[in-house]
Design a protein that fits this description.
By secondary structure, this protein is an alpha/beta fold. It has a single domain, classed as Zn-dependent exopeptidases (Aminopeptidase), CATH 3.40.630.
C-alpha cells in the first residue's frame, strides 16, 4: 500500500511550543513521521513523506503530494496545544460525515489505545465512531482516506516531556503503524 505521511508545520511555522520543556511541535511531528515511515516500510508499505527535513509546505501542497502520487492513505502528524495547560491526550481527526477515512481512524485509534494505555484517548463517539471531525484543509483536499493524528499535548508539561523521549516517539509511531497495517489488511 502507498502511504503519504505528513509531518505537520515546519520551517518558519513551529506549531505549538512548550518553552518550559523545550519542545516545538514541528520537531516532534518530524521525528514521529520519520519513525512511522520506518515502521510502515518494515511492514512492506511504500511510504512517501511530505517533508523529511525542517522546511515549510502549504496545506494545499501537502494534499497535492498525496493526490499526485496516488496515495492510498494520508496521515498528517501533529501535536496538540490548549489554553488549559492540563489538557492531555491523543486525538484523531477526519473530514465531517461518513468518509472512507473513518475506518482508518478507528484502526489507528484502537491500536494507540491498546498499545499506549498511559495516553488519554480523546475520542468522539457521538456519530458512532471514535474520530473527531473537522473541516481541515489538509484532509478536505486529499482524495484518498486522510486522517490527522494529534499525538499528545505539548502545552501540558508532563505530556510534552513524554513526547520528546526517543523511546516514546518509537512507541507512538509503532502504534500508529499497527493501526494502518490492520486497516490495510481488513
Amino acid at each position: 500500500m502507498k502511504i503519504v505521511i505528513d509531518a505537520g508545520h515546519g520551517g518558519h511555522d513551529s506549531g505549538a511550543v512548550n518553552l518550559k520543556v523545550g519542545v516545538r511541535e514541528k520537531d516532534l511531528n518530524l521525528q514521529i513521521a520519520l519513525a512511522l515511515q520506518g515502521w510502515l516500510m518494515t511492514g512492506g508499505h511504500a511510504v512517501l513523506l511530505t517533508r523529511g527535513a525542517d522546511f515549510f509546505l502549504g496545506l494545499g501542497e501537502r494534499a497535492a503530494i498525496a493526490n499526485r502520487d496516488g496515495a492510498q492513505a494520508f496521515i498528517s502528524i501533529h501535536c496538540n496545544a490548549a489554553g488549559n495547560k492540563e489538557a492531555k491526550g491523543f486525538e484523531i481527526w477526519t473530514s465531517p460525515g461518513p468518509t472512507s477515512a473513518d475506518s482508518l481512524a478507528t484502526f489507528i485509534g484502537q491500536a494507540v489505545q491498546a498499545n499506549i494505555p498511559r495516553l488519554v484517548n480523546r475520542f468522539d463517539f457521538s456519530d458512532g465512531d471514535l474520530d473527531k471531525e473537522g473541516n481541515l484543509a489538509v484532509l478536505r483536499l486529499t482524495k484518498c482516506p486522510a486522517v490527522l493524528v494529534e499525538a499528545g499535548f505539548v502545552s501540558e508539561d508532563s505530556e510534552a516531556e513524554w513526547l520528546r523521549q526517543p523511546e516514546n516517539i518509537q512507541q507512538i509511531s509503532h502504534a500508529i503503524s499497527l493501526g494502518v497495517s490492520m486497516w490495510a489488511t481488513a
